[in-house]
């Protein structure tokens, strides 16, 4: 996507609900209609400048005038396309900010149960390398080790960046035990 004349864009950002709306009639949509279509799991897409793009990528482009390789939803909610929730990221940074996968049996990112040894293992990835953080008797301790490592290694892209103190971190882990 090239940074052409921003005033001539076929869409504009409606900041009242953080949607993209058509600037003019398109034949199938009227000016002011919400652009794009729902593709499931909170994501939308639209045909923009002759190519199909994910909605949040077009939103970022229209608001910032450039398109990075990856656009990350800071809060992990693909329906939240507010300017304050979208940021430029690398593919690696975007993966750091992902949610726990559905097939994760522990419910904690980077934590799994080692049945043979009866312990919980914590691990994290950095630059494609797996880093083992140790084994722990409780899921609580393994999750705490993972979150500490995540905050240290991944900083602002950490999914757990909202825990500002050890007390808040421990309270959240206790709540989700």
Major sheet description: 3 strands, antiparallel
Low-confidence stretches: none
Question: Taking strands numbered 1, 2, ... along the chain, how are they ordered across the largest sheet?
Answer: 3-4-5
* Number of helices, counting only DSSP H or I runs of 4 residues or more: 4
How does the helix and strand content classify structurally? alpha+beta
Q: Total strand count, please?
A: 10
Overall average residue pLDDT: 86
CATH architecture of the largest domain: Alpha-Beta Complex
- What's the number of structural domains? 2
Rg for CA atoms: 20 Å
CATH level-1 class of the largest domain: Alpha Beta
CATH fold node name of the largest domain: Homing Intron 3 (I-Ppo) Encoded Endonuclease, Chain A
- The ordered string of helix (H) and strand (E) elements is EEEEEHEEHEEEHH
From the spread of the alpha carbons, the general shape counts as: elongated
- How much helical structure, as a percent, in the residues? 10-25%
Q: Kindly estimate the percentage of residues that lie in beta strands according to DSSP.
A: 25-35%
End-to-end CA span: 45 Å
Task: Describe this protein's structure.
The protein is an alpha+beta fold and 177 residues long. It has two domains: 6-89, Homing Intron 3 (I-Ppo) Encoded Endonuclease, Chain A; 101-175, AP2/ERF domain (GCC-box Binding Domain), CATH 3.30.730. The chain has four helices and ten strands; from the N terminus they run βββββαββαβββαα. It has helices at 55-64, 91-96, 139-154, 166-175; strands at 11-14, 19-22, 37-40, 43-48, 51-54, 70-73, 86-89, 111-114, 119-126, 129-136. Strands 3-4-5 form a three-stranded antiparallel beta sheet. A hairpin with a 4-residue loop joins strand 8 and strand 9. Helix 3 (139-154) crosses helix 4. The mean pLDDT is 86.
